[in-house]
Amino acid sequence: MVQLQEIVDEHFQEGQAGPEEDDADYTDTDSEISEESEYDPSDETLAERLYALRDMVPPQTRGYIANTVSTAGNAVKSVLSFSGKTLWVISSSALLLGIPWALAWAEEQQMLEMEKEMKMREMGGDLLTAGTGSSEGSTAQQVGAALGQEAKPAL
Fold it and tell me: Where on the tree of life does the source sit, at the highest rank (predicted)?
């Protein structure tokens, strides 16, 4: 039968190279931080505090949150881009089509006013040359009849 025998390596019997076994040099890091630390929490910004909390959230949740924020950011970017393009199309269409139409309409209104003024001058001249002895009535009534309106006295 085979018999197993443990052989102890001399390397494991020797002491490890490094600091002495003196406990005076040993310090507890927790007590050192709490007692002798120069850390001032009032110097910390909100962003630094939130960044320090990232390890409290599991990686899957952090990934979900990051994907959700990225998707929302892309959606906002797309909406703003589409809105800007739409605004550009509307404003350029208004400039190219609306302004010439408005100018033509204003010119047409001006022409109508000029024609109306010419008719009134023509009628005024006819009234003056016809004299005051006409049996048709007062001048205001004659002007109103020519324009298709009924003359009303001013109050």
Answer: Eukaryota
Residues 143 and 139: their CA atoms lie apart, in Å, by: 6
The larger pLDDT score, comparing residue 89 to residue 128, is at: 89
Angle, to 10 degrees, between the axis of helix 99-130 and the axis of helix 139-147? 140
DSSP annotation string for 125-146: HHHHHH-S--TT--HHHHHHHH
Q: 6-11 long-range CB contacts below 8 Å, 24 or more apart? A: none
Summarize pLDDT for 49-101 with one digit per residue, the tens: 888 888 888 889 989 999 999 999 999 999 999 999 999 999 999 999 999 99
Unique residue bearing structure tokens 């269409």: 93
Up-side HSE of residue 138: CA atoms within 13 Å toward CB? 7
Looking at per-residue confidence, does 9 or 91 come out higher? 91
Q: What DSSP designation does 95 have?
A: I
